[in-house]
Amino acid sequence: MRLRLVNQDTHLDFMAIRRWTVGASAALALASLAALFSLGLNFGIDFRGGVMIMAETEQPADIAAYRSALGGLGIGDVSVTSISDPAAELTGAARNAVMVRIGAGDGSDLDAVNVAIRALQASIPTVNILSTDAVGAKVSGELLLSGALAVVLAVVSILFYIWLRFEWQFSLGAVIALAHDVMLTIGLFSVLQIEFNLSIIAALLTIVGYSLNDTVVVFDRIRENLRKFKKMPLADLLNLSINETLSRTLMTSGTTLIALLALYLLGGEVIRGFTFGMIWGIVIGTYSSIFIAAVFLLWTGLTRETVDADAAAGVRFGAPDAP
Amino acid sequence: MLYFSLWKKALVIGVCLLGALFAAPNVFYDAADTAARARTQIALVEARGEAPSPELLAQAARWPSFLPASVLNLGLDLRGGAHLLVEVAVEDVYRDQLVGLWPAARDALRAVRETVGPFRQVEGATDALVIRLNEPTPQAVSAAVAAVQDLAQPVQQGLMGVSGRTFDAAGGADGVIRVTLTEVERAAVLERTMAQSLEIVRRRVDEAGTREPTIQRQGERRILIQVPGIGSAEELLALLGETAKLTFHVVIGQTENPDAAAGAGNVIVPDADQPGAFYIIERAPKVAGENLVDASAGFDQDGRPAVNFRFDTTGARQFGDYTRQNVGKIFAIVLDGEVISAPRIISAITGGSGQITGSFTVEEANRLAILLRAGALPAAITVLEQRTVGPDLGADSIAAGEIATVVAFAAVMIFMVLSYGLFGLFANVALIVNIALLIGFLSAVGATLTLPGIAGIVLTIGMAVDANVLVFERIREELKRSKGVARAIEAGYERALSAIVDANITTFIAAAILFAMGSGPVKGFAVTLGVGVVTSVFTAVLVTRLIVAGWFARARPKVLAL
Q1: How many Å apart are CA B22 and CA B460, to the nearest integer?
Q2: pLDDT at B4 (0 to 100)
């Protein structure tokens, strides 16, 4: 008996509910934008500048002791939070660790990190400094800019690639789906106020890559079916293509999610935000390639003529045409 | 599609074996790592014509000598260490250059005093040397501009690059003469300053005996310093703060015996380039490096490579007096207790600047210029970014990464077998080959593995089966169209290819952009993701197909249980 995520022969009418799904996505995207402008993002020190120190003690962490050690140093706002890692507690690798954040607002005084370490070592003799990060305002500004630029550049070059390989209608559909994924992911980070740092940019770019991967597989089938079924109405044809690839779509999402879940639960505190972003992105990306990208093909007025006209000229790998 | 020619079969299997060969050292990480380091050491020792020590040979013997020994480099976030990004204040050097022009400009203007009349320097400007003539007649201004401009040296940026003068002098009707550095000179000064800063930083970090530091120029005026195994960035900063000592000494004689009697007031110092050669020099320096303001590579009158240098006022006077009294003799340029050069004094050097000629190549002249300046950092450095990771946290991250990888691996493999049965097993073999190829490639090219890099591997595990899933699903569809098993498998591979290639190229584009734009650990993620895409396409399209073809040739199934 084989494990089947979906029946082999599905005939789900995805296009019938397109007004609902696109409406819901549009609402979520707007909500994300609203959250971004009202709540903002909880930028990590990579993008904001400042100092972060991770420290541990042999005894359970005494937040008050850390606070009193760092108070009155004149190094700016100090916040101390304890770090708990449920997975590490299970495996016995847990540490009595705390995260100290020093909001050197303008980020100019990187020496705060050295001052703070000396103060901690003086008043808590058993303290062990696990890691320190100090980023100046100059660098953090650049990191944010280059991060944003990377995401935009990725979307643009992918738009270009899809346009090259398919038609502009496909390209538009794919990019709307990508923008949707990126927006909803940023929105979630804004609503939950999860720290947004350099690794989240990496997660965003991977989501872009993955979501597109999914979209392209569906598009590839749509193109093939457009040539195969000359009379079928476009909505039916899109439905057929999505249904035919549904098993693969869910299968790949499944294996990727399994791997990411293992990383999320067991990969440690440092990359938890990153894997969380990825998991959300995979779910959203899978959804968007079915419900957003394909729907926009319907709305951009894709016709067989546009595909046929380019059939000879298009750059294609393999032999997609049925005999 | 189910037929593989012999050479193609051999090629695919060969690549897989190569991957396994290069991945293997990582399984025996400590042994291979020790051997790899020992091999490097032995090569260094043998290059000097010496015999390697028995310990080194024993360490190298921990791993078979015919196998590659390079393992995955662990990033700072995994093995612990300090990371510093500093910026060099090149503006200071530009200003110093302009300030240093004043004595020569003053002398040149004094020489034409009858024409230009009285003049003085106007303080305050940082981007120009400003001289004001008290009697700004047009003749005086043009004569003054010509006299100052005449001091400008020819300068060339790059081997084939733009050439020009070091500075431009411009005069106005108000009698104000502004001397500014040309773009070519600014670019040359920037390159020189950065090269010197890098050299000094490298010397400092090496001096401390730290293992495998990374010192790189980043962008126009930044230096990235990564030192593994150092507990605090403050130590590193203290190290960089120290200044090197550069001195000019009278040479008494040369010897090959480091224990020879030097005589009162003299010391014996080794030659930096020739092992076994020593100089006997006067202990008290004639001129100290603090008085050196600039040194650059150039050419002498005969077109031979030479090093130009310049002292400040004090240094110029001291050096002038000394060289006048010792024409024809040798003096030693000593850096950190080693003689880096011992030129002969050809003539008295009174203008504060001089030229070291010798039988050196352009590269050597360049190096000497850098070394001459390496006495002190040419400009102040400011810390932009400072990060440290303790070894405990690094070990935690490695452990967490290992567990996550193993669990993800096992879960995906079980999932594949449950879904596709025998074909799932084939895909799993391909997955193992895929990871071996990925790790083998990363080890062979000396890529650095970071924690996000491990995340990239785990993600690859999840996504790598995608190409196989595409093929298998396609075969299922073709089977439903009641074609023969062989035809269905062939059609499955044929028709899935287009989707596989498109889907993976898009992911690869994202990885490439991440690599180009990302920094540090994120770059590590991009590398594993990008390489993972390539290896997963290879394994799905070729390795799995080879297995399926082999199985099909033997089993000849009438129906396919997929």
Answers
A1: 19
A2: 79
